[in-house]
Amino acid sequence: MSTQFQNEPDEEDNSAFWNKDPVPSRYSFVTRSRRWLVPALVSAVVLILVLAFGINSAGLSSRMGSQEDAVSNLSLSLSSARKASMGTAKDVQRLRFSVESNKDQLISVAESLKELELVHTLGRTVASLKCALERLIQNRTEIKGCCPLEWESFESSCFYFSRASLNWHDARDWCHAHQSQLLILTTAKDWDYVRPYVAHTFFWVGLTDENGKWEWVNGTPYTMDRSRWKPGQPDNWAGHGLGQGTEDCAHLHWDGRLNDLHCSQRQRFICQRRSSPSES
Ligand SMILES: [Ca+2]
């Protein structure tokens, strides 16, 4: 057995098999590859980090530049605003000084206006007393240039602000029976005069659209002016529950603006006439 084993024809080959010379050669190549591969990878990572940091640094620098510009602009704006506020403060100071220096004059003007109003009121009172004396002396109810008792005088007209309440048609007839008509407002002066009298209640005026279009009781066509009406009026409301018909008669609201109502409603009214029409 031992001889056979020794006589194996490929004994030398087996020796050759155990010869490891070529193998260390391949192992050395791998080792060398690993030897440069690791530093290469480290270098690549470092390079990537450097590049990333560089890009971030560039973006950061750009943003910082923008922020610096913004801060610079803000500083300029603040500086301008500060100068402007200083200028305004000076203007306010000058205005205050001007007001203070003119305060006495303004007080004097206000007192003069009060006196003027008082004189005007006294003048109306004197005129009313004069009319009353004339009525007594002449034993007449109508005096030229005078308004009847309980009527108010304004310009060349007399106004009666009723205390009783009537529906619109009865109010219109009452005014006719007293040589007057329901109020017709055609001038801003008349509107301004009437407004304080209607501050607390409603008054019928001589405006109706019973015939299909708005017109004054004397037949004068009415030119629609929404600024004189309550918002959304006239609305010709049909849900009033006051019988047939919609809202065809105008009245003055207590804020001095118009509204249309059903004519059957009872409320106070204003009559208007010229001073002593029977003699004019
Ligand atoms: Ca209405």
Topology record:
Layout: H1 2-6, H2 11-17, H3 22-138, E1 152-154, E2 157-161, H4 168-177, E3 181-182, H5 188-194, E4 203-208, E5 215-216, E6 249-252, E7 258-261, E8 268-274
Parallel strand pairs: 4-8
Antiparallel strand pairs: 1-2, 2-8, 3-8, 4-5, 4-6, 6-7
Calcium ion binds at residues 233-235, 237, 247, 259-260.
What does this protein structure show overall?
- The chain has 280 residues and is of the alpha+beta class.
- The chain has a domain at 156-274: Roll (Mannose-Binding Protein A, Chain A), CATH 3.10.100.
- The protein has helices spanning 2-6, 11-17, 22-138, 168-177, 188-194; strands at 152-154, 157-161, 181-182, 203-208, 215-216, 249-252, 258-261, 268-274.
- Strands 1, 2, 3, 4, 5, 6, 7 and 8 form an eight-stranded mixed β-sheet that branches.
- The longest helix has 117 residues, at 22-138.
- The structure holds calcium ion.
- Calcium ion binds at residues 233-235, 237, 247, 259-260.
- What is the element string, with H for helices and E for strands? HHHEEHEHEEEEE
What's the CATH H-level superfamily name of the domain at 156-274? Mannose-Binding Protein A, subunit A
Helix/strand class: alpha+beta
Question: In percent, how helical is the residue content?
Answer: 40-55%
The rounded Rg comes to 53 Å
What general outline do the C-alpha atoms trace?
elongated
Which fold name corresponds to the CATH topology of the domain at 156-274?
Mannose-Binding Protein A, Chain A
Total number of helices: 5
Q: What is the makeup of the main sheet?
A: 8 strands, mixed
Q: Which band does the percent of strand residues land in?
A: 5-15%
Tally of strands: 8
The level 1 CATH classification of the domain at 156-274 is Alpha Beta
Distance between the termini: 171 Å
